[in-house]
Amino acid sequence: MLDLSELRRLSLVDSDFFSHNVFWLLQSSSGAKLLSLRLEDVDEMNVNALAIIGRECKSLKELSLARCHFQVYNNYISTTYERADNKCS
To answer: Is residue 28 part of a domain?
Structure first.
């Protein structure tokens, strides 16, 4: 298994956040040390994905999201966005 514990910068293009286990990489020791995260054309992005990034990447100084595909669930929108707004303010 590859040791990514010293990873500081990560750029992913054309990936799936959950199916390709990006979330697992961020939840491992790698996420805590990341300074820069660039996600481009990443599918399966949602409020949970953003919450994982915020919770696990405490050292993050730069976050770039380009052409990512966000999933929004109508019955989940209002309370989730209210919680996200509260966390971001």
So the answer is: yes
